């Protein structure tokens, strides 16, 4: 992949009829925390900035970056640029993936929303940092580009997927129709969203049920029906194990073609650094 080739590929996908993953040239940048603010009771937003943010690329609602942390002894081992890719040291350094919530090239700001949970490495780090704290950010490595030609869009996920769903809703055309199902603990985790008039947003309150153990998301998605002449795109994410029946529902009941949906596990019960690429 030559630099710039991905822009032509993105244009081709947007002019087509199905979604496709498009790789971008991957960079590594040292940024600093500009500010932090709670978004609802479940998300902590860190705004990152700095001169190295220049040239950052952002094209897809679900693209992610990888934050690279020092080892326990304080040593920092970073990936090195290798053409348009990164070469990672072995053993791999401590790192975590997070959705690009917002990138503003004019303000030179990058927002990352952290879903707070007890004992999470990155969650604890995000709550402890102060303005001026520096962090290395790798990526995005690419994203799934989706044309805005579908009849309706189905978005669903838990609070870890909420940053991506919020960005999806902001990027959809004003005339878009569809559904957004979002599983959270309670009303305190609901946030303000920019939503096209034709998209129904349904907040699913899990209550005392532990994260990753509720079937609320599955039951909500199963209410969706598609007419024979209707094309929909489905984007679903959350706890990996709970998504398995939804994969079957999208394929077997909604009968979506492979380019018409993306279902990815953002985390998995009992796994500290789950890699979504490990899931089908």
UniProtKB/TrEMBL annotation:
- Check the UniProt entry and state the signal peptide residues, or none: none
PROSITE patterns, alphabetically? FAD_FR (PS51384)
**Xref: CDD domains:** siderophore_interacting (cd06193)
Outline the extent of the FAD-binding FR-type domain: 26-147
Q: Would you tell me the protein name for this molecule?
A: Siderophore-interacting protein
Q: Which organism is it from?
A: Rhodococcus globerulus
Q: What is the lineage of its organism?
A: Bacteria, Bacillati, Actinomycetota, Actinomycetes, Mycobacteriales
């Amino acid at each position: 992949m030559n630099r710039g080739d991905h822009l032509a590929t993105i244009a081709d996908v947007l002019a087509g009829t199905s979604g496709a993953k498009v790789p971008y040239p991957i960079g590594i940048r040292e940024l600093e925390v500009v500010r932090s603010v709670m978004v609802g009771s479940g998300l902590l937003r860190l705004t990152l900035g700095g001169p190295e943010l220049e040239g950052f690329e952002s094209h897809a609602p679900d693209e992610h970056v990888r934050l690279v942390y020092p080892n326990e002894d304080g040593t920092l081992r970073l990936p090195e640029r290798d053409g348009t890719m990164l070469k990672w040291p072995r053993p791999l350094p401590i790192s975590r993936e997070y959705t690009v919530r917002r990138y503003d090239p004019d303000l030179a700001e990058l927002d990352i929303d952290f879903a707070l949970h007890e004992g999470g490495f990155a969650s604890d780090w995000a709550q402890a940092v102060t303005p001026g704290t520096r962090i290395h950010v790798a990526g995005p490595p690419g994203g799934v580009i989706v044309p805005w030609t579908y009849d309706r869009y189905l978005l669903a996920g838990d609070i870890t997927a909420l940053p991506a769903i919020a960005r999806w809703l902001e990027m959809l055309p004003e005339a878009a129709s569809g559904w957004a199902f979002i599983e959270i603990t309670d009303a305190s985790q609901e946030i303000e969203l920019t939503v096209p008039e034709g998209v129904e947003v349904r907040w699913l309150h899990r209550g005392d049920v532990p994260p990753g153990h509720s079937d609320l998301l599955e039951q909500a998605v199963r209410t969706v029906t598609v007419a024979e002449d209707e094309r929909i795109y489905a984007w679903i994410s959350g706890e990996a194990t709970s998504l398995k029946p939804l994969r079957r529902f999208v394929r077997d009941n909604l009968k979506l073609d492979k380019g018409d949906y993306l279902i990815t596990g953002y985390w998995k019960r009992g796994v500290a650094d789950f890699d979504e690429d490990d899931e089908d």
